Amino acid sequence: MHKIIFLIQCNDRKGLLAAISQYFYSRGYNILHCQQHSDTRAKRYYMRVELDLADLKTTRKELQSDFARFAQGLELTWECHFTDYRNRVAVLVSKTSHCLFDLLSRQHEGDLVCDIPLIISNHPDLEYIADQFRIPYYYLPITKDRKPEQEEKIRELLAKHDVDLVVLARYMQILTAEFTAEWSGKIINIHHAFLPAFQGANPYMRAYERGVKMIGATAHYASEDLDQGPIIEQDVVRVNHELSPEGLRQVGKDVERQVLSRAVQAHLEHRIIIFNNRTIVFNAEH
Question: Does the pLDDT at position 199 exceed 70?
Answer without folding.
Answer: no
